[in-house]
Amino acid sequence: MSTDPSAGPITEPTATPVGADAATPEPASPEAVAGPPAAGRKPVVIVDDVHVEYKVFATGKRPTAADRRSLKLRGRGKQMRSVHALKGVSFTAYENDSIGVIGTNGSGKSTLMRAISGLTPTSAGAIYSHSRPSLLGVGAALLKDLSGERNVILGGLAMGFTIKEIEERYDDVVAFAGLEKFIDLPMRAYSSGMTARLKFAIASMATHEILIVDEALAVGDRTFRQRSEARIREIRDNAGTVFLVSHSMQSIKDTCSRVIWLDQGTLVMDGEPTEVIRAYNKAQDK
Ligand SMILES: Nc1ncnc2c1ncn2[C@@H]1O[C@H](COP(=O)(O)OP(=O)(O)O)[C@@H](O)[C@H]1O
Ligand SMILES: [Mg+2]
To answer: How much is the pLDDT for 83?
Structure first.
C-alpha cells in the first residue's frame, strides 16, 4: 500500500459488486467499452469512462492549516493545481484474463491500478468489480522493524489465515522468496529486491480472484521473476484475473493474454500482446 501522503484517502472500492444475484451493470453503451470479444466469459472488472483528477499544490506539498488560512486571507487559491491523470478510460476484464498494462512514466498506469483496487477515488465514471481486487505494489505495507518471519505471520493473519494455516505455508513462502538465510533479520536489513520478493511471496499465499501487480517484479532477479511469472499464470489459469504493470515487455509477453497501452491518461490500444507491444515500441522509436 502506498504511503504517498498526497494520494487520496483509502476508501472502500468505488466498485459496486457484481453479485451473483445482482444484475450485471452494463456500461451505457457496449461499444463504449473496448476489448476483445469475450463470448460467454464472465466480466470481472468493468472500467467505464473513468477519470481521475488529483488536486495538488504547485509546491508539491500538502496545504497546512496555516497555508489555507493565508490563502483565504489573500483570497486566492491559484497554487492549487489539478492533474488529470486518467481521462475517460474504459475496458472490461474477464475471468482468465491476464492483462499487461504498459505506457511511459506518468501515463496513468499506477493511478488506474489504484482506482481499480479502490484506493484512489474516481472523479467521474465508474468501476465495477466482481470481488475486491488485491493490489500488490512495491509499496505494500510490511513492518520494517519486524523480522521477515513476523511479517509472513502478520501478512497471513491479515489475509485471514489461521496460525496453523500459516505454519503449513510458511516454508513455501520463505522458499518462494528465496530468503531462507535472512528470514530472522529485521526487514530494515533487506534490500529492495528482497523486500519485493517477500511481499510477492506473502501475497501469493492467498488465492486472489483479482490480483494487481504494479512493477513489483522489476526488482527481483531472474529466477525470482520466473517464479513469480509462473505464479501469475497459475492465478490466471485458476479463473483469476491478473493485471501486470511492467516495463519489461518480456515479462508481459510471457504472462499476459492481453495488453492495455495508456498514454497521458488515455487508453491508446487494447488487444493482443504482440500487436500492442509492437505498436508501442514503434511509437517510442519516433
Ligand atoms: N498522488 C498524486 N498526486 C498528484 N498527482 C499524482 C499523484 N499520483 C500520480 N500523479 C500524477 O498523475 C499522473 C499519472 O501518474 P501515475 O499513475 O503514477 O503514472 P505511471 O504509473 O504510469 O507512471 C502523473 O502526471 C503523476 O504526476
Ligand atoms: Mg507507476
So the answer is: 92
Instruction: Give, as one character, the DSSP assignment of residue 222.
Output: H
User: Which atom number of ligand 1 is nearest to the Cα of residue 4?
Assistant: 1
Query: How many whole angstroms from its chain centre is CA 39?
Result: 26
Euclidean distance between CA atoms 155 and 151, whole angstroms? 6
Q: Measure 106 CA to ligand 1 centroid, in angstroms.
A: 5
Number of Cβ atoms within 10 Å of the Cβ of 80: 12
- Angle (nearest 5°) at CA 252 between 35 and 179: 135
Axis crossing angle, helix 222-237 with helix 192-203, rounded to the nearest 10: 20
Looking at the chain, the whole-number percentage of residues with pLDDT higher than 90 is: 43
Could you tell me if the CB of 54 is within 6 A of ligand 1?
Answer: yes
pTM of the model: 0.73
- Which atom of ligand 1 lies at the shortest distance from residue 108's CA? 17
Interval 42-90: pLDDT, tens: 899 999 999 999 988 776 556 677 766 665 545 455 577 889 999 999 9
CA separation, residue 144 to residues 125, 174, 191, 205 (Å)? 37, 17, 11, 20
Q: Using an 8 Å Cβ cutoff, are 148 and 217 in contact? A: no
Q: Which residues of the chain have pLDDT under 70?
A: 1-39, 59-63, 67-78, 136-141, 216-220
Q: Which atom of ligand 1 is nearest to the CA of 55?
A: 4
Ligand index nearest the alpha carbon of residue 112: 1
